[in-house]
């Protein structure tokens, strides 16, 4: 699998999460396991079982985040100069069904969050608008059926 695009901000959030997992969560779980061991019989010790389970989840997340960081290619959208919509663009679209504007930034899969106006570059809408210019009409299939948008503007920040 090739490098996955990600904004500098998105990669930084992953780096911060990894640091938190390794420097705060991991040591706390080790302490929790030590305390639980002090309670005696491990075969009937719910605190020990819970701490071990939390340790498993945390170690899996550490491995996942490390993998995502290693596979990412950080891109600074503010340095992109393009007359077409590409990764990192913030796009203002007019929904032609209800004349409402929506704004999305095209980001990496790991950092997408529709509630924050960030959609994955691999989403159906993003794939439909990549390569478009101002005033182009974008048609794509959404879960709610066919949709049409007009590109009002786009920029890189």
Number of domains: 2
The structural class is: alpha/beta
Number of strands: 7
Tell me what portion of residues adopts beta-strand conformation: 25-35%
- How many DSSP H or I helices? 3
Uncertain segments are none
Using the coordinates shown, work out and report the CATH topology of the largest domain: Chitinase A, domain 3
Detailed description of the structure:
- By secondary structure, the protein is of the alpha/beta class.
- The protein folds into 2 domains: 4-74, Helix Hairpins (Orthogonal Bundle), CATH 1.10.287; 77-155, Transcription elongation factor, GreA/GreB, C-terminal domain (Chitinase A, domain 3), CATH 3.10.50.30.
- Helices cover 39% and strands 27% of the residues.
- It is built from 3 helices and 7 strands; from the N terminus they run βααββββαββ.
- It has helices spanning 8-37, 46-71, 124-129, and strands spanning 4-7, 72-75, 90-95, 100-107, 118-120, 137-142, 145-155.
- Strands 5-4-3-7-6 form a 5-stranded mixed sheet.
- Strand 6 and strand 7 (145-155) form a beta hairpin.
- Helix 1 runs antiparallel to helix 2.
- The radius of gyration is 22 Å and the shape is elongated.
- The mean pLDDT is 92.
Q: Gist?
A:
Helices cover 39% and strands 27% of the residues. It has 157 residues and is of the alpha/beta class.
């Amino acid at each position: 699998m090739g490098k996955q695009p990600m904004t500098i901000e998105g990669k930084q959030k992953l780096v911060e999460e990894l640091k938190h997992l390794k420097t705060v969560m991991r040591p706390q779980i080790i302490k929790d396991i030590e305390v639980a061991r002090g309670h005696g019989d491990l075969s009937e010790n719910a605190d020990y079982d819970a701490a071990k389970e939390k340790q498993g989840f945390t170690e899996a997340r550490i491995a996942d985040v490390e993998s995502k960081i290693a596979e990412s290619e950080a891109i600074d959208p503010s340095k992109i100069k393009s007359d077409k919509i590409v990764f990192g663009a913030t796009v203002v679209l007019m929904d032609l069904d209800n004349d409402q504007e929506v704004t999305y930034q095209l980001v990496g899969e790991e950092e997408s969050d529709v509630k924050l106006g960030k959609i994955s570059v691999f989403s159906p809408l993003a794939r439909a608008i990549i390569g478009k210019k101002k005033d182009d009409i974008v048609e794509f299939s959404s879960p709610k059926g066919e949709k049409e948008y007009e590109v009002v503007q786009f920029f890189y920040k």
